[in-house]
Amino acid sequence: GAVVSQHPSWVICKSGTSVKIECRSLDFQATTMFWYRQFPKQSLMLMATSNEGSKATYEQGVEKDKFLINHASLTLSTLTVTSAHPEDSSFYICSARLAGGRRGTDTQYFGPGTRLTVL
Amino acid sequence: KQEVTQIPAALSVPEGENLVLNCSFTDSAIYNLQWFRQDPGKGLTSLLLIQSSQREQTSGRLNASLDKSSGRSTLYIAASQPGDSATYLCAVYTSGTYKYIFGTGTRLKVLA
Predict the structure, then answer these.
(1) Which tens digits make up the pLDDT trace of A10-29?
(2) Which residue of A has its CA nearest to B53?
(3) Helices H, strands E: what count in chain B?
């Protein structure tokens, strides 16, 4: 099946620094990728939709200047958490959309996640 | 706006019991529905994916059903084992938006 990777799998940083997380589709091209955030004991919340070659679209309440998304190629999207603070500590998961050739076969494949801890 | 709810929020059962986890969604215009398992501190493991045209999918001891018209899906786990202990999430892929909306999750604990 389709594989999506994330790097790094975990990262610890100091408050005020920026952190970049990569999401790659390994064996398919993804014109659209998605970024989710999960706080402890909570479900996944969609943050933004990353579109190859164009600006990302953000969900309501997500600061676009804080969470910078770049989708420079059909297999790579990056999420940069700028000026990170302890409240940004979370589990970040990406997914990549595999567009279906037939109606009803469109789906997404999820990465293994990146745990960010901001001290 | 699609909303996904899972009941119960938590469940603790003795080993060997058959279980039913419930997922309901408000917008029936979906491409598919997927059930995931998540172990503590880990990512998502896809268990079953049901296309909008399908009624159920089976994998080993797991069976998922989909009733799109009523906005419901159930995950049936047969002969539960301690290794089944995890959080189970359902996610609905809504037509037109190409977004997965996740449910609130069910935390399952199977006691030996």
Answers:
(1) 999 999 999 999 999 998 88
(2) A104
(3) 0, 11
